[in-house]
């Protein structure tokens, strides 16, 4: 699969697109991709603005986000981490994390799709051989793939059988973000008769991959994160990432997959919370009425002391969270782009603690923001047509991914005793 081509996106045309009125019409396109970090973040903002324009309607319709994926493709965002020599953006993880955050402000679901895609794009970098890394980076970038993953570590019912020159994947995963809208799926299973985990990339559209279409959750409704049945999906041993002569050759660097994806979560949580505060503030300025029965009557809502206090509290928390998350993103980005053999267990553990602290802060503060905004916008803002509920539903749903108290414990053990967490599927 490292050199197999998937369907490429349509050739870009047009510039600075605006959303078409017909949701079934083609996604907007651009004439060229950015060449600078600032340009890529501007592109992410353009995509975010387009998504925000009809986010409420699309959430209510709950349709598979094929058109939204085409938007990400035509914007070039899927290739942001790809090498420049293959047509990619050549950007760092620090930029990728920020792009995820920006897109999530407009639509948390699509921010998650992009976020997971970046992690799966980096899978070969994390665990693959040098040859696999180069081949996958080229194929994924030139193919403009959206990459999904059937890698839920709590499911142990996807087995991998050694059949000589091939591996055969069979079983089920209860979650598979990206689902039917992806071009390529990262599979993970345990090699039969061993405790060894095997990662590989396969074309999504094949007979042996059957998505149940059962993603029907409170939030993040457009992420295609339902279950998937895997039946006799065959891959050559050469596509088993990190394996040479059927033996895995991994480094401490390979265990960065979990801190990297946990910080992915952290950034789209921040984006969702920022989007909620921005949307609520706009509503307050435009529609919220001052309270006329308090004995301290104001002419407009933006003069009400409790509203000013409320926005001040929420904004200051998000600003503090953003500073912490940016610092963590810069730290892990430097390591992700450094020579793989240089990473030590101690350094990896310290980064994991920073990620845990970042995630627990934005999860708690973000849930406060997405709930408190109703008190600052007023009763009429609870109308379904306004759509402020989307932000809380999205953040509430994904922040249950793994228990937050364990993140607090990891930070506490480090702060109190200097102990770093042992790498696990969630640490």
Can you characterise this structure?
InterPro entries: Acyl-CoA_DH_C, Acyl-CoA_Oxase/DH_mid-dom_sf, AcylCo_DH-like_C, AcylCoA_DH/ox_N, AcylCoA_DH/ox_N_sf, AcylCoA_DH/oxidase_NM_dom_sf. Keywords: Oxidoreductase. This is Acyl-CoA dehydrogenase family protein. It comes from Brachybacterium kimchii. The chain is α+β, with helices and mostly antiparallel strands and about 425 residues long. The protein folds into 3 domains: about 35-145, Acyl-CoA dehydrogenase/oxidase, N-terminal domain (Butyryl-Coa Dehydrogenase, subunit A, domain 1, Orthogonal Bundle); about 150-250, Butyryl-CoA Dehydrogenase, subunit A, domain 2; about 250-415, Butyryl-CoA Dehydrogenase, subunit A, domain 3. It is about 45% helix and about 10% strand. It has 12 helices and 9 strands. It has helices at about 35-55, 55-60, 65-75, 95-105, 110-120, 125, 130-145, 255-285, 305-335, 345-375, 390-400, 405-415; strands at about 145-150, 160-165, 165-175, 185-190, 195-205, 210, 230-235, 245, 245-250. Strands 1, 2, 3, 4, 5, 6 and 7 form a 7-stranded mixed sheet that branches. A two-stranded antiparallel ribbon has the order 8-9. A hairpin with a 2-residue loop joins strand 8 and strand 9 (about 245-250). Helix 5 runs antiparallel to helix 8 and helix 8 (about 255-285) runs antiparallel to helix 11 (about 390-400). The model is unreliable at about 5-20 (pLDDT under 50).
